Amino acid sequence: MFMKGRTTLFVIIGVLAFALLWLGSNYNGFVSGSEAVDNAWAQVETQYQRRFDLVPNLVETVKGAARFEQETFTEVTQARTQWQSAGTPDAKIAAAQGFESAFARLLVTFENYPQLKATEAYRDLLTQLEGTENRIAVARRDFNEAARAYNVRVKRFPSNLLARLFGFEPRVFFEAAEGAETAPAIDF
Fold it and tell me: Distance between CA atoms of 134 and 129, rounded to whole angstroms?
């Protein structure tokens, strides 16, 4: 009788220890995943800030060589302002997507000015901007991958129960702006 009670006690202690280890491991996994997403988002912000810092220089260089639609410059400036004033990743994603459209029209406009392409300052800035665009693409991909891995953990059973208990929510992906698959039309 004593052995049976002792065995039951060991089984209960073992189950509780396993449950605590599982709980701790999963909680720590959520925290690590959340931090990975936050880190990846910081990289996205860094690359976008680099872009937003380069674009005014590019615009000023271009302004000296040709006159463009005021509306495009206004949209680029407004989108940059929206990015800087956005407080959440969702708001920053929306601001970045608005910038994508205006920026694409600006680049297409540059294509219509061959003499502009020949200026050294323009070429240097455009090269930096192309590198920044590549960095943004990589940072966005890394963010989406970190968000995907985290979201899978948050949504997968049985850890989803624990995620809900501790308030871990799925993260939003960075997606292309609506209409991004269509090249902007420039009409002079």
Answer: 9
With contact defined as beta carbons under 8 Å apart, do 129 and 51 qualify?
A: yes
CATH code: domain 2-166 is 1.20.1440.20
Per-residue pLDDT reduced to its tens digit, 141-169: 999 999 999 999 999 998 888 889 889 99
Cβ atoms of residues 41 and 143 within 8 Å: yes
**Per-residue pLDDT reduced to its tens digit, 110-144:** 666 655 555 666 677 778 888 888 888 899 899 99
- Token representation of residue 27: 């909680």
For the cut 80, the answer to whether the pLDDT of residue 30 exceeds it is yes
Going by the DSSP 8-state scheme, the letter that residue 88 receives in this structure is S
Q: What is the pTM of this model?
A: 0.59
Cα dist from 116 to 76, 132, 182, whole Å:
19, 20, 25
